[in-house]
Amino acid sequence: MSVLIYLIPIALGLGGLGLLAFIWAARSGQFDDPDGAKYRILMDDDEPM
Q1: Is the overall model pTM greater than 0.70, yes or no?
Q2: Can you tell me the distance from the alpha carbon of 14 to that of 5, in angstroms, rounded to the nearest whole number?
Q3: Distance CA 11, CA 33 (A)
Q4: What is the per-residue pLDDT across 1-46, written as a single tens digit (0 to 9) for each?
Q5: Phi/psi of residue 30, nearest 5 degrees
Q6: Contact, 25 vs 31, CB < 8 A?
Q7: Sequence-distant (≥ 6) Cβ neighbours of residue 25 within 8 angstroms
Q8: Residue ranges per domain, the chain?
């Protein structure tokens, strides 16, 4: 039972880090164009010689 004293704060800390990373990614524009990837697959960027 005494190990829970260490594990609960570690788990809360890691969860908080994950939440901060998600907020940072959302504010920096990582999720602005969710439809762009499916159209980029279809684009042919190869130029014939």
Answers
A1: no
A2: 15
A3: 32
A4: 899 999 999 999 999 999 999 999 999 988 888 788 788 778 777 6
A5: -70, -20
A6: yes
A7: 31
A8: 4-40
